[in-house]
C-alpha cells in the first residue's frame, strides 16, 4: 500500500504512515495514543516525496514530543481536537504537495533573473528546482464532510478565519540583475511564462524556479536609493518624498513640482478608490521617477516612438520623462500645459499598478488604461495666471474638448495638407464609436481624447456601474490573455448591449460639459509646417485648430520619412478669423 497521512484521534496531529496495514503497531509521538486501522485518513492518495519529507518530524520535534509524554488529554478533549486536527493536517498536506510538485526536470527559457540553489537552513525549502512553466496553482481550502450521530452526512466549512485568508504566494530564490541572491515572489503565470516580483519592485521572468520558505522583504526607500545610486542612476540628483524617489537631471524646481503633483495624485487616488469600497492598498515598494534634462537625453536612453513624450515601464516599475525640448518653441503655451499633464498621466499608470487596482501585466482594454490616466491628469491653463499646474481628478480637459469638437465639426479645420489621412479622424463606418474604442489595441493622439470622454461620462453618470466594471477588471490575473472580443463582452455585460444609445448619451453629455461655468476653451492655433525633401524640394502646409492633439497627428501624417526633420509652429489667437488670416499670409510668404 502507498503511504498515507492520518490524523491522531487523541491530539489531532498529522502523521505519515508508510505502511497503513500495520498502523496498529504505532503510537502517536505527541500524546502516545495508539493508532488503529480505522484512524481518520487525511488523504488516501499517494504523496510526492517532497511532501512526505515536509511532514516528517525533525529530530528537535521528536525530542520535544518525547518530553511531553506525561501530558494528559481528557477524553472529551480528544473528540473536540479531531476536526481541528484533520483541518490542520489537510493544510500541511496541501502545502507539502505544492512544494513536492516543484521537482520535475527544468526547461531552458529566456530570463532576466536566474534561479539559484539556496543555502540549506531552517527557512529554506529543499534545494530542488522546477521549470518556470510548471508551477502549480496555490492550494485552496475545501469544505469537508462529517457524519452526525444519526448517520446524516453533513458538509462542514473550514474555520472562518482560515477560509478568508488568501494563501501566501510561493517564493523563490533567484539572482537579480546585479548577480545578488534575493527572494522573489510569484506575480503571475500563464502558458509557459512565469513572472516573479523582486524586492526592488521590478519584474523578472526566470527559466528555473527554486522554492524557498524565506520571507519576501521589499526594499525600503533607503535600501533602494543606495542600490540605484550605485547603478545607471548614479549621475542623477535625488529628491525624496514620502512615497517617491525622484532621480533628476532637470532643474530642482521642476523635480520639486513633480514630487508635489505625484504625492497629491497618490493621496487622491487612494481616497477615491477606498471611498467606493475598492480594495486599494498602500504601495508595497518605493515608487521611482526619473527626469531627464532634455528630450534628446530621454530619447537617447529610451527607444520609444517619436510621439511618446514619457513612459511608465511595467517591468522596472518606474516612470521616465524630461523637462525641456527643442520643440517647446513650436507651441510654448501647449508645452507648458503638457508638462504637469505628462507627469500625472504616467504617474497614474504607476500608482494604479501598485495599489491593487490594475495588477501589473493584467490585460486591460487600452481605452480604459489611457482613459483613466487622462481622466486623472487634466492641466490647469496658464492663461488663468501663474505657471501651469495640475487641476485634479475628473476635471474638464480643455485639450480633449477641443479635439472632440473638431472630430464632430470639419469646418474647424481650415487648411489641411492633401496627404493628411482624414479617415483616421472619423468613426468607423457602420459601428458605434463606443464599440470601435473598446476593441482598440492602439490609440492615436485624437483617440486619447475619446477615451477621456468615455471615462469621464462613465465616472460621473454611470458611477456604480463604472465601479463594478473596475472591480471586475482588477480581478484579471497577470499574463492572462484577453482579445478585443473579450473586452467588448465585458463592457456589454456591465453597461448594456445598446452601444448606439451609449454613443448618443455621451455626445449629449459632452455638449453639456462645454456649457459649464469654469470650462476654459482653448485658443485657435495657426499651425505652419515646413520640410525639406530630396532633390531640393520644400514642402509647406498650414492649418487652424483648437486641438493640440489634432495638430500633433496632422504633423505626423504629412511628414515624409525621406525628408529632413520638419519644422512647425503653432501660435495661439483669440478667434478663428485671426488664426485663418495668419496662416493665409504665411502661405503667401508674408
Strand content: 15-25%
Q: What structural class do you assign from the helix and strand content?
A: alpha+beta
Helicity range: 25-40%
Distance between the termini: 99 Å
Computed CA radius of gyration, to the nearest angstrom:
31 Å
Largest sheet: 6 strands, antiparallel
Describe the structure.
The chain has 590 residues and is α+β, with helices and mostly antiparallel strands. Among the domains are: 4-103, no CATH class; 524-587, no CATH class. Helix content is 36%, strand content 17%. It has helices at residues 49-55, 59-67, 75-100, 160-164, 221-229, 252-275, 295-301, 332-352, 366-375, 398-408, 433-438, 445-461, 463-474, 484-495, 499-513, 548-558, 576-587, and strands at residues 4-7, 14-17, 40-43, 114-115, 144-147, 153-156, 171-175, 181-190, 193-197, 203-204, 211-212, 237-240, 244-248, 287-294, 311-313, 318-324, 379-380, 389-390, 524-533, 537-545, 567-573. The strands form 6 sheets. Strands 4, 7, 8, 9, 10 and 11 form a 6-stranded antiparallel β-sheet that branches. The model is unreliable at 37-112, 116-129, 134-163 and 413-426 (pLDDT under 50).
Amino acid at each position: 500500500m502507498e503511504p498515507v497521512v492520518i490524523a491522531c484521534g487523541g491530539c489531532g496531529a498529522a502523521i505519515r504512515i508508510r505502511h497503513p496495514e500495520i498502523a496498529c503497531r504505532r503510537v502517536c509521538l505527541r500524546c502516545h495514543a495508539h493508532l488503529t486501522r480505522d484512524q481518520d485518513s487525511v488523504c488516501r492518495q499517494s504523496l510526492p516525496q517532497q511532501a512526505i519529507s515536509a511532514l516528517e518530524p525533525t529530530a528537535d520535534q521528536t525530542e520535544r514530543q518525547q518530553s511531553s509524554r506525561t501530558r494528559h488529554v481528557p477524553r472529551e478533549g480528544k473528540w473536540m481536537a479531531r476536526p481541528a486536527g484533520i483541518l490542520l493536517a489537510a493544510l500541511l498536506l496541501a502545502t507539502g504537495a505544492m512544494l513536492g510538485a516543484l521537482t520535475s526536470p527544468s526547461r531552458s527559457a529566456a530570463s532576466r533573473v536566474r534561479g539559484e540553489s539556496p543555502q540549506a537552513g531552517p527557512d529554506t525549502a529543499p534545494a530542488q528546482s522546477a521549470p518556470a512553466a510548471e508551477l502549480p496553482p496555490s492550494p485552496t481550502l475545501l469544505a469537508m464532510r462529517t457524519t452526525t450521530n444519526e448517520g446524516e452526512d453533513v458538509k462542514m466549512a473550514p474555520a472562518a478565519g482560515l477560509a478568508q485568508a488568501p494563501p501566501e504566494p510561493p517564493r523563490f530564490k533567484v539572482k537579480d540583475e546585479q548577480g545578488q541572491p534575493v527572494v522573489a515572489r510569484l506575480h503571475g503565470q500563464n502558458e509557459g511564462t512565469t513572472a516573479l516580483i523582486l524586492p526592488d519592485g521590478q519584474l523578472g521572468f526566470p527559466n528555473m524556479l527554486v522554492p524557498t520558505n524565506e520571507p519576501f522583504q521589499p526594499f525600503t526607500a533607503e535600501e533602494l536609493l543606495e542600490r540605484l545610486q550605485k547603478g545607471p542612476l548614479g549621475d542623477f540628483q535625488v529628491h525624496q518624498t514620502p512615497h517617491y524617489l525622484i532621480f533628476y537631471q532637470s532643474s530642482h524646481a521642476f523635480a520639486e513640482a513633480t514630487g508635489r503633483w505625484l504625492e497629491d495624485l497618490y493621496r487622491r487616488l487612494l481616497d477615491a478608490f477606498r471611498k467606493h469600497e475598492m480594495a486599494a492598498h498602500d504601495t508595497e515598494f518605493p515608487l521611482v521617477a526619473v527626469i531627464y534634462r532634455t528630450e534628446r537625453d530621454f530619447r537617447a536612453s529610451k527607444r520609444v516612438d517619436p510621439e511618446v513624450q514619457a513612459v511608465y515601464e511595467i517591468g522596472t516599475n518606474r516612470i521616465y520623462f524630461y523637462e525641456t525640448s527643442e520643440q517647446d518653441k513650436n507651441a510654448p503655451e501647449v508645452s507648458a500645459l503638457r508638462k504637469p499633464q505628462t507627469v500625472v498621466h504616467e504617474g497614474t499608470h504607476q500608482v494604479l499598478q501598485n495599489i491593487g487596482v490594475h495588477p501589473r501585466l493584467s490585460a486591460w482594454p487600452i481605452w480604459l488604461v489611457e482613459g483613466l490616466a487622462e481622466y486623472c491628469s487634466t492641466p490647469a491653463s496658464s492663461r488663468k495666471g501663474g505657471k501651469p499646474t495640475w487641476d485634479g481628478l475628473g476635471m474638464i480637459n480643455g485639450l480633449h474638448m477641443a479635439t472632440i469638437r473638431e472630430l464632430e465639426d470639419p469646418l474647424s479645420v481650415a487648411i489641411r495638407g492633401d496627404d493628411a489621412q482624414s479617415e483616421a479622424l472619423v468613426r468607423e463606418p457602420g459601428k458605434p464609436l463606443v464599440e470601435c474604442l473598446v476593441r482598440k489595441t492602439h490609440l492615436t493622439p485624437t483617440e486619447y481624447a475619446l477615451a477621456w470622454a468615455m471615462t469621464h461620462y462613465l465616472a460621473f453618470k454611470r458611477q456604480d456601474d463604472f465601479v463594478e466594471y473596475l472591480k471586475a477588471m482588477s480581478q484579471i490575473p497577470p499574463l492572462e490573455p484577453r482579445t478585443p472580443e473579450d473586452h467588448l463582452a465585458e463592457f456589454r455585460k456591465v453597461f448594456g448591449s445598446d452601444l448606439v444609445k451609449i454613443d448618443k448619451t455621451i455626445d449629449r453629455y459632452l455638449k453639456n460639459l462645454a456649457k459649464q461655468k469654469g470650462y476654459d476653451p482653448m485658443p485657435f492655433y495657426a499651425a505652419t509646417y515646413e520640410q525639406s525633401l530630396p532633390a531640393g524640394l520644400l514642402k509647406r502646409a498650414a492649418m487652424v485648430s483648437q486641438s493640440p492633439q489634432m495638430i500633433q497627428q496632422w504633423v505626423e501624417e504629412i511628414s515624409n520619412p525621406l525628408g529632413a526633420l520638419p519644422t512647425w509652429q503653432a501660435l495661439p489667437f483669440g478667434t478663428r478669423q485671426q488664426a485663418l488670416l495668419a496662416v493665409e499670409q504665411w502661405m503667401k510668404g508674408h
